[in-house]
Structure formats: C-alpha cells, structure tokens
Write a sequence for this structure.
C-alpha cells in the first residue's frame, strides 16, 4: 500500500506473513526495513493476518498495523478479538494495542488509508451466517477500531 508517496512493502509468501516489511520512498531512493512483529508462528502457532499502513498526522508518524487471528481449539481461525500490534516509524518498535474488534477481517485483505484511518471490508455475521459486509476502520491517531455499514449501491 502507499501513503504520502511512501510505499509499504511486505513479504506475504503463500498467504503467510513472515514478518518482513519495508517502507520505500522512491522520490528520495530510501528504504527502511521494518522488523517482524512480536506475534509470530513461533510465539503463538498458526494464525492469519491482515496489514494496514498509513500516516498519523497527530504525531507526524507513519504506522503499520498488524491484525492477527489465532487458531482456536477447533482448528478455526478468527478468534475474536484479534491480536493487534502497531509499528511506529518514529519509535522503531512494535507494541500491542487493546481492542474490542468484533469482525473478522479476511486474510491478507487490502486496506485503504483515508482520513487518518486504515479501512478494510469484513463480513458481518448474524447467527453464524454472513449477513452483508461492514467497513472496519482503525484510526491511527486514537488507535481504536470503528465500523460503518457498506453503502447499499445496488439495493
């Protein structure tokens, strides 16, 4: 993904995030390697993930968001709430963020950065069945999740 002319590149090999990422600014020909997050296969076992990238104008900082769903005892993923970590370019480290996210963002979903938040589309479940989609947002300044209905364009 890209934000303010900076690209976030991650190595997502065969659907598994191995922890490698980099920020690349082609206009100044600079690349900054980002270390792997704290939640890994070695530390937590099988998981699925999604990434978000954007710019926090309140702190003048680029941030990478990792949303990880662990495998439960029935070998299913999407344990709610997920484990969420944020990498701050300013502090150069990952840290866990408490969250109450009730939606399962599909693995390797592309996020869109808009108005200070990373946004994903996630399925909305009611009584175990998919009942449409919601837009899940993560505000980089406040570091909280939000949600809104997907507009009904074809109803």
């Amino acid at each position: 993904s890209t934000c303010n002319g900076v690209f976030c590149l991650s190595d997502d090999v065969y659907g598994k995030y191995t922890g490698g990422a980099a920020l690349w600014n082609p206009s100044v020909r600079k690349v900054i390697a980002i270390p792997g997050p704290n939640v890994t296969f070695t530390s937590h076992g099988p998981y699925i993930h999604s990434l978000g990238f954007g710019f926090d104008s309140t702190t003048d900082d680029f941030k990478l968001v990792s949303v990880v769903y662990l495998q439960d005892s029935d070998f299913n993923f999407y344990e709610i709430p997920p484990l969420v970590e944020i990498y701050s370019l300013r502090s150069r480290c990952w840290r866990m963020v408490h969250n109450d996210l009730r939606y399962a963002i599909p693995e390797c979903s592309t996020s869109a950065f808009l108005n200070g938040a990373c946004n994903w589309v996630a399925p909305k479940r009611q009584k175990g069945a998919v009942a449409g989609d919601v837009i899940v947002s993560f505000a980089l300044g406040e570091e909280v999740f939000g949600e809104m209905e997907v507009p009904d364009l074809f109803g």
Remarks:
- The helical segments are 41-44.
- The longest strand covers residues 129-139.
